[in-house]
Amino acid sequence: MRPAPLRSAVAAVAAPAQPQRYLTNDEAAEYLRLSPRTLEKQRVIGGGPKFRKFGRRVMYAVADLDA
């Protein structure tokens, strides 16, 4: 009977996930080349980029702005 081949220790360790980067309303507006007021309107009406609220702060993930 043959022993099972050894796996590399490097392959077993997954790469650490990169934390998402979040932007404020003003930063996201600059990133998208829009006015901050346009993003605020899109939040109320709908159809804008996905946002998250941390307490009272509205934040946009860069990955959502690129989508």
Automatic annotation (TrEMBL):
Residues 22-67 form the Helix-turn-helix domain. Pfam families: HTH_17. InterPro entries: DNA-bd_dom_put_sf, HTH_17. This is Helix-turn-helix domain-containing protein. The lineage of its organism: Bacteria, Pseudomonadati, Pseudomonadota, Gammaproteobacteria, Pseudomonadales.
